[in-house]
Amino acid sequence: MVNHKIITKNLDLWYGDSPCLKNINISIPENAVTAIMGPSGCGKSTLLRVFNRLNDLIDGTRITGKVLLDEQDIYKDIKDIFHLRKKVGMVFQKVNPFPKTIFENVAYGLKIHGWKDKTKIEKKVHDSIIDVGLWDEVKDCLHKNAFSLSGGQQQRLCIARAIAIEPEVVLFDEPCSALDPISTAKIEQLIEELKQKYTIIIVTHNLQQAARVSDYTAFMLLGDLIEFSETNQMFTTPKDKRTENYLTGKFG
Amino acid sequence: MKKNFIERLLPIFALLTWVFLFGIMLILFIEGTPIFKSVPLFRFIFGRHWYPVHEPPEFGILPLICGSLMVTAGALIIAIPFGLGCAIYLSEIANRAVREIIKPFIEMLAGVPSVVYGFFGMVLLAPFIQRIFHLSIGLTAFTASVILGVMALPTVASIAEDAISSVPKALREASFALGANQWETITRVVVPAAKSGIFASVILGIGRAIGETMTVLMVAGCCAVITPNFFKPVRPMTATIAAEMGEAPMGSMHYHALFAIGLVLFLITIGLSLIAEHFKER
User: Could you tell me the CATH superfamily of domain B33-281?
Assistant: First the structure.
């Protein structure tokens, strides 16, 4: 029996008057990688940003329906949005380390969440950097500016920053779209390892990437969730004609 | 392709800015340096007495430098917190409608002629300050500082606002996604990321205040003494030049001394601009 970490029920989302997500019902399995794919403008990033309420930053966003995280409605039961974001971390498409040192980048979230003890912070920062496989590359330059790292290293630093505060879910919004193939491979391998500890949702418009990294795949089109199933099944025997057309490259 | 006449002319216009700059510098040097034949540079800069029409005259500009520094420092105490507060509010907190309304006003504040500020300071602020602090005269370093602070505020606010707005949205999102609230995001991510631009805004604000002439001429009280007391009149460098140029006979020591003050001011402001450029580029 699969445990579901996040469940949406009849989720609709508007930006102003334009509907962006239409009646989304999806159950995200725990400790697995779920990919959300679809062509540009299908609402996949918007859906991802529902899960940590980052859409709240955009004026004029309206939501109806339910989004449950461990059976708690994140729009009603979780009053404190900052606790939600402690549980649901995020890695972005645009590689965005802070203009601080490597160490400070990872320590930032810890300090925000009230960590005071310096030795504890230091240990947690080191552990997080080790977890993303960056330790050997940066251990001698932890106090250098994060921008001195390569793009792929910066993205892994961003992942370290996200997991340092021990979230339960990590959202990846096209994390490799700006990276070279070798860095991409490293990040994909890392995602594979991270699913032992975290529930992972990754948005991608790269079909091969969805096939490589995910256990479950959702296919979206113009705000609708067209199909959601195990990745193997979707890529071999899609149920919906539109999914098949997308997978075979008839549009996209 | 053949360039037309206007296209050939444009580089000359651009070059003219250099010609003006170096022309000004050259004239200041030619007209200012003769004073150092009779008054050594050290005594000119660090001399404590400015008595240009006494017999014998004394040309020590330290009181004038102190006057300028005092009103500028006072102005910054006002312009920096208000200007930065304004910049942070406009770029981070205010919604678009409020921003669209307030921003043009800041630019208008920058466009008010300085004589109007001076007039305002003389007629309204000086008597007010004289009354509440029980002074014998309202034209003081403090009065000048307040007015100069308001004048430098738009410079600080608009340049700092540009710097803060140009911090990528991705950084704010990263901070919010880690659970930071707006205040933490502003103070720990956005402002540090914009710090070189903010620094440039402060330097340009200093330049604005230190070079201002008409206002300080009208409200600083114009008394060439060295005093730590902000409620005493002072005489900044700019005001000295403006007030005395008309009465200094051309080619006299006094005349050359005023040019030398101009040279000192020019070097200070050009230094500030260079520092600001350096920080803006980072």
Answer: MetI-like (1.10.3720.10)
Window 157-176 of A, Cβ < 8 Å to B: 158, 161-162, 165
CA B51 – CA B223 distance, rounded (Å) = 11
Judge: B170–A96 Cβ closer than 8 Å, yes or no: yes
Domains in chain A, CATH or no CATH each: 29-45+83-217+226-247 (3.40.50.300)
- H/E segment holding residue A164: helix A151-164
Interface test with B, best of A98, A106, A128, A172 (most B CBs within 10 A): A98
Which of B95, B178, B192 comes nearest A112 by C-beta?
Answer: B178
Torsion angle in degrees (nearest 10) through CA of B73, B75, B76, B82 = 160
Supply the pLDDT for residue B110: 87
Here the ipTM equals 0.91
What angle in degrees, to the nearest 10, is found between the helix axes of B195-211 and B141-165?
A: 150
Report cis status (omega within 30 of 0) of the bond before B11. Answer: no
Locate the domains of chain B by residue range. Answer: 33-281
Give the mean pLDDT per block of 10 residues along chain B (282 residues): 80 91 93 92 91 89 93 95 95 90 90 92 92 90 94 94 93 94 94 93 92 90 84 92 91 93 93 85 64
Q: How far is B172 from chain A (nearest CA, A)?
A: 9
Residue A85 and residue B176: Cβ atoms within 8 Å?
yes
Mean pLDDT of A37-63: 90
pTM, full prediction: 0.84
CA distance A249 to chain B (A): 32
d(CA A135, CA A70): 33
Top-confidence residue, A249 or B70: B70
Q: Does residue A1 have a pLDDT over 70?
A: no
Q: CB–CB of B179 and A112 under 8 A?
A: yes
